[in-house]
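User: Can you fold this complex?
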Amino acid sequence: MSIFDNPFDPDRKLRAGCACGQHQSAAEHEQATALHCEPVESEEKRYEGVVASAVMRAMFPQDVARRAFLKSVGASTALAALSQFFPIKTATEVFAQTGTPEKKDLKVGFIPITCATPIIMAAPMGFYAKHGLNVEVVKTAGWAVIRDKTINKEYDAAHMLAPMPLAISLGLGANAIPFAVPAIENINGQGIVLANKHKDKRDPKDWKGLKFAIPFDYSMHNYLLRYYLAEHGIDPDTDVQLRSVPPPEMVANLRADNIDGFLAPDNICQRAIYDGVGFMHLLSKEIWDGHPCCSFAASREFITTAPNSFAALTRAIVDATAYASKAENRKQIAEAIAPANYINAPVTVLEQVLTGTYADGLGGVKTDAKRVDFDPFPWQSFAVWMLTQMKRWGQIKGDVDYKAVAEQVYLATDTKKLMTEMGLSPPASAYKSFTVMGKNFDPAKPEDYVASFKIRKAS
Amino acid sequence: MTTPSLRLRAGLVSIALLAAFLGIWHLATRSTAPVATMSPEYAKLMGLTATQGKSAMPGPLDVGAKLWEHLKRPFYDNGPNDKGLGIQLGYSIARVGLGYLLAVLVAIPLGFLIGMSPLLSKALDPFIQVLKPISPLAWMPLALYTIKDSSISAIFVIFICSIWPMLLNTVFGVASVRKEWINVARTLEVGTLRRAFTVILPAAAPTILTGMRISIGIAWLVIVAAEMLVGGTGIGYFVWNEWNNLSITNVIIAILLIGIVGMLLDQILARFTRMVTFPE
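Assistant: Here's the predicted assembly.
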């Protein structure tokens, strides 16, 4: 007896033979009816039938009792009655969406900065558990280590800088291993902080000879700082010094007068202000409003070996990101991610970053609700822009198939599907043009864009 | 009146020095008056350093209070990234123990062999001399890349860094056993194996143990660097995590504890050394 036959049919035969009585066995009956080629019912309807059957059988494990009930009230009334106290619609949705995860216990690495907010908060706030996963979020010492641990499969997925999965897939600074980005962690959320002694040097044209820190070579921080400097006529390779420095050391180095400023992820910017060693020169959103910052990434291998786990993980992250994007939740999130187990930073600092009401280090309180924001959609045009900057600064030599790489790494199609299933409204296209410091970027013409910059590395 | 013993006088000087150090530390890190006038709304968003001119360096009282907090509950476990200091030290000691034990298992037999053969000793010397001064942090990326497991990599780094002093000391100890003793054994027709165990081993034991004592010191030095890099657990990770939080207080506490544990490990081996040393 198949579990998918119809338990609402009071005339269904109980023992040997088929349901209609014209065939010797159920198998023969199926063979015969299969030839009728009935129109395929929608997937949703099919799932609904399966769920309703399961509920019906659970209610009346005895066939005879079920029949008696159905005969007295009729199948449709029975179904209606059932839906009253059992949410068949919701159960169907859940059933249709989630294949059972191949692997439930997962490890996700993160760097303790506010960019990792959705990844981190999903653990204490139960977003992973909601999607059927048992995820351990592991704090990691640096970007290179997170890259190596993800490649080594110690982590199933990880928090990465948005350009990192592109760099890893292209084999820049590591072996070429195909990685993918199903979701952007955060947009905006960085800033340029200068040491207090540069209070009167607010024009970047005066910055020749200064020393700046960035967290990693393949980072939006690097590209945005270079872009900003170059737009003001400063060649980032010759006129200033750019150093790769781990974020906590940035604050200490700024205090020790070893660097003049940095473009860092938040809570580090705010921490420098909180400790009284620097001031906010500008938020990164003033360079490009809505720029991506960090990403959620996994190797292609993990995606193909555990597609359901990956889908559940992505759903949890998208869900958490949607929650984090609402301003009214931000204070609660700041409290959830501040303990030593997660970011390990003062709540005041995280609150200033997440709510956008912050001390600027110059004696004023500023408000910008979009200082950091959360929007998971992995625009493939973001990836194209990052590739143009890699090309511009000599990280990529030779020709690049911008579109192919972007589409291979940034999984817009899959994310779109998941978002639709979750009742969110993803954009129709994965490409959009945007402006960075007043200059329009057309994702269809990346090569022209690279060529349009006066300051760039000769290739 | 008899003069107090040297031990007592030394103890008193130690205490006086400590008190002076703590006193100067306390005075140097006191907070000054508010640095600048700022609106209360703004001040609420700023840290103590900015509002009260408090030194970024904590004073001895801050450290003491924090240390007491840690000591009160050394074994708490708040999830993968936040564990008590006792647990962190336990992880570090276990890693050091494992790496060090592996090094002992390799270094002493190998050192014995090399020490007994002047040819091997001369031939291997250049390799050992080149490998000996390599920093643990230099090994780390290579280990992570080839072993592909961060906790085994940390153990490997301890192994590779603590093996050399033990090896060199064993070689030296075995090679410099007095010729007369070996000749006496020879005239008594003692076999090679028996000679190694009854004559050479006891004679070389103090030198071997000195090597082991240097090695445990190095292993303990290495673990902090290794754990800072791979993260996860251990006292080195604790330092990194608190550094991330720019909490100098916790960093100082960790330094203090690292020093104390290192001293204890050294004392244990010093005791063993005394046990095998004999007056000539």
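Residues 17 and 229 of chain A are 81 Å apart (CA to CA). The first strand of chain A starts at residue 105 and ends at 110.
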